[in-house]
């Protein structure tokens, strides 16, 4: 057997054994399927990396769609990542083509005149050093679907955890995600760890997890927005001092009788109303929000849904017009018949692919993932938490708060890190 098949067997045999067990125990499932993708519309020539797509049945009727990219480095030794995009309900396709995957759309996107946009290689892909499974989770996300929809079935944090744990059961394994996935990735790692302790086969060589700008606690994340805005000079010293004094540092749960705090919060909302809170350096776009596709705003939000009074008077963030155009083109690309044929998508299972599927019946039944971080660190699992400093929705200040609460010893002082000789952070 040639080297390619050896690599595939090394990576996928444990997974396929699990899938066979799953499918044999749930007769309502369509048979698990996988296919190699060698060409994609918009990319010139054969893909220079291994891409596999497929469906895996979990639970009673769920069919989860995945994209698997084998490491371009040393796949026999490199780690395996399971990537979940936030939302909840945003497709992992966004990570595959816009964040950490090996391909990206050519930007800015020129006028297409009905043709599909071009795809280029991403020189900074994480697949240079790891194999990645990009998973559309929960059901209803991307191309994942259910064969037996029921009004009594609705997605939740815990459902995501159970389905992900069932999906992936020899290489070093890391679970990764961003934004709202900060609520579900740590519980997934814990559930897999417990499975190992109970001897559930196949055993997983799980090493830890990776999270970017992760939602962790609604209270911590949202309370951090005001000190963040002050630290980034988005509000005045006077307003910040007044907010801190009147609200006593609690900006989410405000007593109904605390009119001074409420008035200060209103002033704060008005002050930041012209700022794109998702990325404060991105400009606001002049497009009519009523005409903006819902999934575009949802893709860029991928965060805790803001149900507090903190920013209740602020319109949903609008995107750079260029991004609006690009994302609409992405949607056009994925919904194209030739593209779906190349990706081996089952016909008729979903009405239309959307970047994000915001279900109103999604149950946020994990209020904080902090306790999972505590448990996993106690067990010795590694974690990498990275946080950009332009995100006001899940500010790095809040992330620092809960990390400090873990009471780790600092083994290396704060320092600059460099890219190509330049300070990058």
From TrEMBL:
Reply yes or no: does the keyword Signal apply. Answer: yes
Instruction: Please give the Pfam families that the UniProt record associates with this protein.
Output: Peptidase_S10 (PF00450)
Q: Specify the signal sequence span.
A: 1-27
The molecular function GO annotations come to: acyltransferase activity, transferring groups other than amino-acyl groups; serine-type carboxypeptidase activity
Query: What Gene3D superfamilies is this protein classified in?
Result: alpha/beta hydrolase
Q: Which UniProt keywords apply?
A: Signal
Q: Per its UniProt record, what InterPro entries does this chain match?
A: AB_hydrolase_fold, Peptidase_S10
Q: Which GO terms describe its biological process?
A: proteolysis; secondary metabolic process
Per the record, the similarity remark reads:
Belongs to the peptidase S10 family.
- Record-given protein name: Serine carboxypeptidase-like 18
């Amino acid at each position: 057997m040639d080297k390619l098949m050896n690599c595939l067997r090394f990576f996928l045999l444990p997974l396929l054994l699990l899938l066979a067990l799953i499918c044999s125990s749930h007769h309502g499932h369509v048979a698990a399927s996988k296919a190699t993708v060698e060409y994609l519309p918009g990319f010139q020539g054969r893909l220079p990396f291994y891409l596999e797509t497929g469906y895996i049945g979990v639970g009673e009727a769920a069919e989860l769609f995945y994209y698997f990219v084998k490491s371009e480095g040393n796949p026999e030794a490199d780690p395996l990542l399971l990537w979940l995009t936030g939302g909840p309900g945003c497709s992992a396709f966004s990570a595959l083509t816009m964040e950490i995957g090996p391909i990206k759309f050519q930007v800015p996107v020129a006028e297409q005149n009905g043709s599909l946009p071009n795809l280029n290689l991403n020189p900074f892909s994480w697949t240079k050093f790891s194999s990645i499974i990009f998973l559309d989770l929960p059901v209803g996300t991307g191309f994942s679907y259910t064969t037996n929809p029921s009004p009594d079935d609705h997605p939740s944090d815990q459902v995501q955890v159970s389905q992900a744990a069932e999906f992936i059961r020899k290489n070093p394994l890391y679970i990764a995600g961003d934004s709202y996935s900060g609520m579900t990735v740590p519980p997934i790692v814990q559930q897999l760890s417990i499975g190992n302790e109970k001897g559930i086969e196949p055993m997983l060589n799980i090493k830890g997890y990776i999270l970017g700008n992760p939602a962790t606690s609604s209270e911590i994340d949202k309370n951090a927005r005001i000190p963040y805005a002050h630290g980034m000079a988005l509000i005045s010293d006077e307003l910040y001092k007044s907010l801190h004094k009147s609200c006593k540092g609690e900006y989410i749960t405000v007593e109904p009788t605390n009119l001074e705090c409420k008035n200060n919060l209103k002033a704060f909302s008005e002050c930041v109303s012209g700022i794109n809170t998702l990325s404060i350096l991105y400009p606001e776009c002049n497009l009519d929000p009523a005409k903006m596709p819902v999934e575009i705003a949802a893709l860029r939000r991928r965060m805790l849904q803001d149900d507090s009074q903190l920013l209740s008077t602020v319109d949903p963030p609008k995107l750079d017009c260029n991004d609006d155009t690009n994302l609409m083109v992405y949607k056009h690309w994925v919904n194209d018949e030739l593209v779906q044929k190349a990706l081996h998508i089952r016909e008729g299972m979903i009405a239309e692919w959307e970047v994000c599927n915001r279900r109103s019946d999604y149950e946020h039944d994990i209020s904080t993932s902090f306790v999972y971080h505590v448990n996993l660190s106690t067990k010795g699992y590694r974690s990498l938490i990275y946080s950009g400093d332009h995100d006001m929705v899940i500010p790095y200040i809040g992330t620092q708060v809960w990390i400090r609460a873990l009471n780790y010893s600092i083994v290396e002082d704060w320092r600059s890190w460099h890219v190509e000789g330049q300070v990058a952070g």
